[in-house]
Structure formats: structure tokens, C-alpha cells
Specification:
two-stranded antiparallel sheet, 4 helices
């Protein structure tokens, strides 16, 4: 089991499902923002952005497939004991911080505006938010 500071414990599968769900949501939010931005441009100026939307959409589908596979695994290996994704506690601060730093390095190596850059940016944002949740959970006294 993965121990979470200040938030109880989550099984490895639950934690993976939470991270996958967070990654999925971050990309969906970015896709929404790109599509809104694209709608403000004339048709002859949206080709590159439409390609980015398509690429990000494919990535979102991959995350959805991964999430469905994990959900099936959790349902079959932990029947009756699984919890809603929203209440699965965050991972340890050190784990999130290591991943966040690695994602920042990946982001710095990507060309801005590309699907790879958008994906890396989404990872950085997701990890920043996860770190903040984990930090708040650690600072909140048990029983509050």
C-alpha cells in the first residue's frame, strides 16, 4: 500500500486510478481551452491549432482507455472495498515533487504550441495541483 501523509492510505491501484483520472481531467480542460481559442480565429488560421486539438484528443482517448482498464482491475481485485476517486488521498510529497521536476524538464525540451508541449504542460500543472493537495493534507491535523 502507498502511504499518504495526513490522508490515510490508498492502494497502489487506487492511487494509479487517481493519477490517471487527474491526468485525464487536466488534458480535457486544456482541450477545452484550445478549442475555445480556435473558435476565435478565422478558418484559414486554425489549421495548426486544429492539428493540435486532434493530437490532444487522441491522447485523451489513450488516457480514457487506461482509466477504464484500471477501473476494471480495481473492481475485480478489490470488490466492495474501493472508494470514489475523489477521496483517494494524494501521494507522498517526495514522489509528487520528483515527478513534477521531471515533467518541468520534459516541458523545457518541447517546442511551445505543439501537442507534446501541451501534454507536458498539462503534466506540470497536474503535478503542481497534486503537490498542493498533498501539502494541504499533510498540514491538516488528523480528525479535522
Amino acid at each position: 500500500m502507498d502511504s499518504s501523509a495526513g490522508g490515510g492510505e490508498g492502494t497502489e491501484l487506487e492511487t494509479s486510478l487517481r493519477v490517471t483520472s487527474d491526468s485525464f481531467l487536466t488534458r480535457v480542460e486544456r482541450l477545452h481551452a484550445l478549442e475555445e481559442q480556435k473558435r476565435e480565429l478565422p478558418a484559414d488560421e486554425i489549421v495548426a491549432m486544429a492539428d493540435e486539438v486532434e493530437s490532444l484528443s487522441r491522447e485523451i482517448l489513450d488516457w480514457a482507455v487506461k482509466q477504464a482498464e484500471l477501473a476494471r482491475t480495481v473492481a475485480s481485485t478489490e470488490p466492495g472495498t474501493s472508494r470514489p476517486i475523489a477521496i483517494i488521498p494524494p501521494r507522498q510529497l517526495s514522489i509528487v515533487l520528483d515527478e513534477w521536476r521531471a515533467s518541468e524538464r520534459v516541458l523545457s525540451g518541447q517546442e511551445p504550441g505543439t501537442a507534446a508541449w501541451e501534454s507536458a504542460r498539462a503534466d506540470v500543472e497536474r503535478l503542481r495541483e497534486e503537490y498542493a493537495r498533498a501539502y494541504r493534507a499533510r498540514m491538516t491535523p488528523q480528525g479535522d
